[in-house]
TrEMBL record, chain A:
Keywords: Gas vesicle. It comes from Kutzneria buriramensis. GO terms for cellular component: gas vesicle; vesicle membrane. The keyword Cell membrane does not apply. GO terms for molecular function: structural molecule activity. This is Gas vesicle protein GvpA/GvpJ/GvpM family. The lineage of its organism: Bacteria, Bacillati, Actinomycetota, Actinomycetes, Pseudonocardiales.
UniProtKB/TrEMBL annotation, chain B:
This is Gas vesicle protein GvpL/GvpF. Belongs to the gas vesicle GvpF/GvpL family. Pfam families: GvpL_GvpF. Keywords: Gas vesicle. GO terms for cellular component: gas vesicle.
Amino acid sequence: MTADDLVEMLDRVITAGAVVHGDVIISLAGVDLIRLDLRALLVAMDTLELE
Amino acid sequence: MIPSSPPAGASSPPNDRPSPDTAVYAYTITRWSPPDPAAPVRVVTHRDIAMLVADVDPAEFTEPAMIGLVRRHHTVVREAFEHGTVLPLRFATMFADDDAVRRLLRECHDEVVATLAAIAGHREWGVRIPRPQTAPAAGISGTDYLALRRRERDGDQLHRRLARHTSRSTVRQPGPGFRLDAVYLVPDQDEDEFLAEVDSIGGEVETTGPWPPYSFSELRTAAR
């Protein structure tokens, strides 16, 4: 997986996919926090080995 | 990002889930029941639909581990997608227990079946076309400049060309750097034509895919 593919994958997994409420115990707020930190994640990712 | 007080429902776990520190992480909904997903992934079914889940500790979902968890999410979804239609769920979707999963599947059953039917036999592709460099004030002919401007405006036209070969499409929020930034849900039988159309655009085109239909997965009945 190239760095570009990895970014595309992160983008999809974190910001796309069906959102369900109801019994979900981790709130959307949590996901929003994750989204805000996406940039930090991407920076941190530079140090990780790409598969 | 973890609620400091136990959310409703987690304070009285059912018998098979003694620890409130455990949650049922949901990856994707599927229409079929896969034979044996690799542990720790397991299947919770309701009638003819199923959810791929795993027991997790919500406290895992902290910054250092997050990328690995995102990767795992994608791996599970991708592998399921190799075997059938999937309706991927947003990262970090968790339930208190299996009963909560079944309640959701029961409430959304009809919409899930309809959505899975609509996205069956499709794969998602992303297409990005960078915007040409802004014309310099000097050193470019008037004809070149007009051609450049015309190319900048034709993102919509390119999108229509590509969308002809697709079932659904979404133009992402246009960034300053792109003439076109869109995702397409392409029927398997039209994939060759779609990709040929992409190739025919020429110039610099970034294509990603195929992906499970992340960008076309939604459940209105559950998203309240």
